[in-house]
Amino acid sequence: MKYFFYCLISVVLFSACKENKKQTVQLPSDSIFYLTSQWKNQNGDSLQLKALQGKTLAVVMIYTTCKAACPILVSKMKSIEAKIDKKNIKDVSLVLVSIDPTTDTPEKLKEFSITNKMNDPQWVFLTSNDAATQEFANVLSMKYKKISPLDFSHSNIISVFNPLGELVSQEEGTIDVDKVVNTINETVKKNK
Q1: 125-182, pLDDT tens digit by residue?
Q2: 38 phi/psi in degrees, rounded to 5
Q3: What are the residue ranges spanned by the domains of the chain?
Q4: Nearest residue to 25 (alpha-carbon basis) of 191, 142, 190, 171
Q5: In the CATH scheme, what is the homologous superfamily, with its name and number, of domain 30-184?
Q6: Which terminus of the chain faces fewer neighbouring Cβ atoms within 10 Å, N or C?
Q7: What DSSP element (H or E) covers 9?
Q8: Rounded to the nearest 5 degrees, what angle is found at the Cα of 179, between the Cα atoms of 175 and 183?
Q9: Are 96 and 126 in contact (CB under 8 A)?
């Protein structure tokens, strides 16, 4: 009986250790999930970027009052969403990060998401403070500058990250939607 009891305990402990090992994944040294800045999403929830871990990310930096490049970037993100393999959409987050945290409050981002029909679970809108925004832009090699009280000059970049927060690819300028979609689908497939 003692032998059976020890065997049972050993199996339980081994299983628990194996399960714990699964949950503790070592992040690559260049993972965005090491950034500790605080963000708020469109629902007003506070989070760090590591809350996005586990999904393939397509990330773009915009501001909601933009009348020039941002509407094009938003349109590109919506086209990307429409072309992602439907079986992969649950493994993807489409992330729009505001470069204008003063204007783009969580309430404003929520309104923007609803107006633009971007309120399904895969859409994540983030805002923070100026320092966190600049830090994240630096990680993406994205340049932006306030040129008037209501206007910014900025790079047009869509970045794809794997589920561990490692940069997989970037499209800059005119943005090849099909190339981004292929990268997303391949990244999801590789990380299943």
Answers
A1: 999 999 999 999 999 988 888 887 777 888 899 999 999 999 999 999 899 999 999 9
A2: -95, 140
A3: 30-184
A4: 191
A5: Glutaredoxin (3.40.30.10)
A6: N
A7: helix 2-23
A8: 120
A9: yes
